[in-house]
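re: ur question from earlier - yeah i can do the single chain one, its not a big deal. heres the input i used so u can compare w yours
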Amino acid sequence: MKPRDLRLLVMHVSTRCDQACAHCSIWRTNGRTRESLSLEERLSLIGEAKALGARSILFTGGEPLLCGDLESLARAAHGRGLAVQIATNGLGLGGAPWLGDVVDEIYVSVEGPEAIHDSIRGASMFSRLRASVVAVRGLKKRPRLVGRSVISIRNVAALEATVGAARDLGLDAIS
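and the output i got, formated as tokens:
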């Protein structure tokens, strides 16, 4: 790989999750099985990626909003000129007002309209997602909000309704 070829750094920052989704098993161990990099190691990687030509960083997990260092990491990446993206289940967005300062794009999980989403992610998860999206949309400066859906046997027949649910939530796009 040539250094100029690096465009995106995907950084896994959490092995914990606050949902128990049908299609995922991260919640089964909930952070008990893996060691993680220190803040200093992660900051060093961000600097190294930038030096290798990275233009953006995607924070993921488990649930990245459960990483106590996420704000520091996002601010550091933003400060180095990287576009900052977060892939999240969306539940913790309302408790992170700093998002508007440094995050360019947030990918939230949308598995379908409310009944389907809740059957996959748990009771009342769609309404909690909605409240979090409302909080982000209320920020003075806000990141672009993109819905992401894991297509499975549980929601494959509801693709059109999933797009409708993303629109109803006020998301900017869905993938």
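DSSP finds seven helices and six strands in the chain. not sure if urs matches, ping me
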